[in-house]
Amino acid sequence: MRAYYYDNVPGDQRLPHDYSPSRPVSDETLHSINVKYWQIPVEGYEQKINAIAKERNYKNRDTINVSKAAMGEIYEDKIKTFFEEHMHEDEEIRYILDGSGFFDVRETPTDAWIRLAVEPGDLLVVPAGIYHRFTLDEKNYIKALRLFQDEPKWVPHNRNEATDANPYRLEYLKTIGVGA
Fold it and tell me: What value does the mean pLDDT take over residues 137-165?
């Protein structure tokens, strides 16, 4: 996974949106906002994923294929929905099996976007309460294993005054030492 600051230049969300020169984001910065990741080779991944799932209490999983071929007529609407800034009340855990894309997470307290370029073998944990969004890259395809602590669900809470006061958002801010 490659992490860098998003350039905020208008245009296709599927482009890299990297500054020139690039402004990489350190592991320490990701750690400070509670974003976790591992690189696990896809070949023979099951044992390592199972160990992490057991350690982190992930009880359920499924596979998602985000592509026009797999999603048909709802594809463009889904891509737009995924790219709206939102948070979840659960961790978002994704292991990339094939394809590639971008997760953008808000750095707090700067409110800058950090772009996480994911590809096969990347396991990413986006914490509950962090503002983020997702998009495919120009290949328009990603296949990911989704892991869940409880029943599989994906409920986005778009950023607004209500989500700023959401208990999961407030708990997230507290865990990274912002607000109290």
Answer: 92
Q: Is residue 116 within a helix (H) or strand (E), and if so which, with residue range?
A: strand 113-118
Each residue of 8-44: pLDDT tens digit? Answer: 999 999 999 999 999 999 999 999 999 999 999 999 9
CA 4 to chain centre: 14
> Can you tell me the distance from the alpha carbon of 120 to that of 41, in angstroms, rounded to the nearest whole number?
8
| Straight-line distance from the first to the last Cα atom of the chain, in angstroms, rounded to the nearest whole number | 32
- Residue 92 annotated as binding? yes
Provide the CB-side half-sphere exposure for 21 (13 A, CA): 2
State the amino acid at position 32 in one-letter form.
S
Residue 157 annotated as lining a ligand binding site: no
- The structure's pTM equals 0.95
17 is in an annotated binding site: no
